[in-house]
Structures are given as structure tokens and as C-alpha cells.
Amino acid sequence: MRVVPDDRSTPPIVLRYLLPHEHLAITVRFHPALFIPPVVTALGALSLAIAVSTVLRGAAVVVAWLITLVIVGNLLYTAVDWLSRQLVVTSHRIFLVSGAGITLEMQLADVKDVRLIRSIGGRLFGYGTLIFDEERLVVDSIPYPEQLYLEILGMVYKDPEANHDD
Amino acid sequence: MIVSDYNSNTALAILRSAGYVNTLLGSIIPLVSILMPWIALLLLYLNQVVASLLAFAAALLISPASLTWKAFLSLAQHDLQAAHGGGWDVLSFVLAAIAAILLLFELIGFGIRTSALSVGLAATVAIVPIMFRLYPLPASDVFYTNLLTQPWLPAETITLTTHQSMTGYVLETDQDWTEVLLAEDRTVVQYHTSQVSSRVMCQIAVVASQRPLFPLINTQSELPLCVLPPPAQGSGGAVHPRQVTGMPPCQTAGRRCE
């Protein structure tokens, strides 16, 4: 499966960082399995806050709910961050973009090797870790890892006989 | 300064007698046990799960708690009996069950470290109110004021040859003079060492009640409570000490003058 969006589906945040002569090849959000830890924490905190509210009274309950609010806030932050973070592969470079800007970048021409690692969790939920050039760039929680791996590998090791107009 | 009751003369006298390093260490070490529960909480929020667990364990063993373990259990039982669920407990249980199922996935997918952090962070919702009960906030409770005003030296009941006894902290002693920080008024006085007939370690009553939740050694039953306040001085036959702080020097008989 090719994950090559057209310009209409490309997020504006990605378009903001593209050079005029650069062609967008891949843009993908991180795997939603990233939500599992903050969701577990938030649900656990909510459960305990309700339990504490039925047992204790006064300042202790206020403190318990304040902490829960912070934990739920962290979940919301994770959601907002997930929406804005993208792995972008163009004809010239690979970079991670988020609301804060480009956080990691590597020239495609500099990539000598690409490795794909799939942990137990990755195999369970369907994500993987791409490692470029001996951990010079490590991108975790990539969805469709095999497809993306092959796609990127195909761009790094171009077929010399291929037509460049494709 | 806290130990000297904010009297700079007494503070300087303690510093001179006990030495800079001892004073510095003596001031810092009690703070470690007081702040340990909050350090543990901070470590947890900084993703240092193992360090946080060790700090919590240390806090249970060394940090002075406002309740004993038995009193705490009794209070918890009372609170549980007085619980007012009203249907909320069902919601709490459902949320906990969903969290437990997701935690299982997290454990398989992300490993024990991430899972432990999730559990730890969620648990702080219950831990912090309990901590407030056991370890009141240092800035807002007299619990720590009593503790911090106690010097790092052991309290002693000092009896003189005239059967006069007082509670204090021996800052320095040599063959000629014994320098004592009196517990009651926090003045530093010197006695002729030959006039000190006995020194018995004791515990100040207010500090004796502030013990860790799980004290490893039960010294409470071994040490007697200190005698407070000391008997009035200046009566016939009483030994007059040299008062180093709190009054002009060299005005009382039997003192060393410099």
C-alpha cells in the first residue's frame, strides 16, 4: 500500500516546510497506540479520584481532583500533539514536523542504511521503529511499518534504470 | 538560625562550638528525612519510577509521620466504613476495569517500565491525599516547626554536682568547660566540666511522638523523656554557668572570662 497523499489531504503544517522544488512522497501520523499509556493513567486517575471522593472529604478530595485534572490534561496534550506530529518523507529529506516546527531532519542522500524493528507491542498493535544510519535518526511508533520501510528504502536505493519522470 | 530561635548570637555560638561542617551537615540531614516523601513524589513525576519507589520506601522508614501505623489503619477503616458511594463506586469500578484491561495491553506492548509509570502516576491521586495526612506540607504545618527547631545533637539531661539538672544539647566539652545549648530558652552556657556530675541522653516529648510510619528501632521505650523546664537558677548552692549568648559576658561568678 502506498501512503502518498495528494496535495488536498496534505496537512498545511507539512506544506509550510516544503521547498518549491521538493516533492512530497510520504506523510503519516504516528500510531494511535501512543495513546495507551496516557489513557491508562487518565482512566486509573479518574477511577481513584471518584473512589477517593466517596471516602475522604475536604482538601484531600480537591487535591485528588487537581492531580486528575493534570493527568487528563496530559492526555489532551498527547492528543493535540498527535494531531500535529507527522513523519514526512520528500524527494530530498526525511523530517518530523510538529506544532513546534521541524524537530528531526535528515537528508535522503545521507541515508546509508535503514532498519526496521518491531517490538512485541509493535507486532501486537501494528507499529514499528525505523532507524536511519546507526540511530542517527530514530522514528518510533510508525504505522504500516513494512510498507513505509519498503517505500523509504525504494527512495534511498533508487533503481538506476528507472524513469525519473515517474 | 531556626535551632537558635532566630538569635544570631546563639547561632554564631553554635557555629563556633560545633564547627562549620557539623553545623551544615546537621542542618541538612534532618531536612532529607522531612522532604523525602515529597522528593519521592517529584521523582515519580520526573519518570524516575525505580528511584521514586526507593524514596517512598525510605520515607516510610525515616520520615517522621504525624500518625502511627496503627492509628493510620484505624483511620482508614473508619473512613471506609463512612464511605458514601451512591452509585459513584460502580462508575469507579468500571473505569478501573477498563484501565486494567488497557494496562495489560500496555504491559505487553510498552513494557514494565512504561506500565509502572502509568500505574504510579494514577496512584498519586490516592497517594497524595494520604501523604497529606501522614506527612503534612512543611510550609503549612506546625508539625515540622517542632521538628526543625530541634538541634541535630541528642538531647541530654545534664545534672550538676549541686543536683541541679537541665535539658540541653552539649555542643562541645573538654577537661575544663562543657558548652551546652539549653533546650528551653536556646541560650548557650558553659559549665565547669568538673561540676557536671552526669549526662543522660533523653528525648524531647514533642519529637518523640513524631516517628516514622515503620520505625526500624524502637528507641522510644529505651530513652527517658527529658526534664523540661530546667529548675530556676541563682538560688543558694546553684552553679552559675557562663552564659555565652543572651546577656553580657563575665557578669556571673564561676564563669570563664575571655
How is this structure best described in words?
Chain A has 2 domains: 12-30 and 85-156, Pleckstrin-homology domain (PH domain)/Phosphotyrosine-binding domain (PTB) (PH-domain like), CATH 2.30.29; 35-79. Helix content of chain A is 41%, strand content 25%. Chain A has 5 helices and 7 strands. In chain A, a hairpin with a 2-residue loop joins strand 2 (86-90) and strand 3. Chain A is elongated. Chain B is of the alpha+beta class and 258 residues long. Chain B folds into 2 domains: 26-144, no CATH class; 146-243, SH3 type barrels (Roll), CATH 2.30.30. Classes of the chains: A alpha+beta (166), B alpha+beta (258).
Keywords:
heterodimer, A: about 170 residues, alpha+beta, PH-domain like, 2 domains, four-stranded antiparallel beta sheet, three-stranded antiparallel beta sheet, 5 helices, about 40% helix, elongated, disordered N terminus, B: about 260 residues, SH3 type barrels, about 45% helix, disordered C terminus
Give the helix/strand layout.
The complex is a heterodimer of chains A (166) and B (258).
Chain A: H1 12-15, E1 24-29, H2 36-55, H3 59-84, E2 86-90, E3 93-98, E4 101-107, E5 114-117, H4 120-125, E6 127-132, E7 137-143, H5 145-156
Antiparallel strand pairs in A: 1-2, 2-3, 3-4, 5-6, 6-7
Chain B: H1 8-18, H2 20-45, H3 49-62, H4 69-81, H5 88-134, H6 142-148, E1 156-160, E2 165-173, E3 177-182, E4 188-192, E5 196-201, H7 205-208, E6 242-243
Antiparallel strand pairs in B: 1-2, 1-5, 2-3, 3-4, 4-6
Helix pairs in contact in B: 1-2, 2-3, 2-5
Quick description:
The complex is a heterodimer of chains A (166) and B (258). Chain A is built from five helices and seven strands, in the order αβααββββαββα. Chain A is α+β, with helices and mostly antiparallel strands.
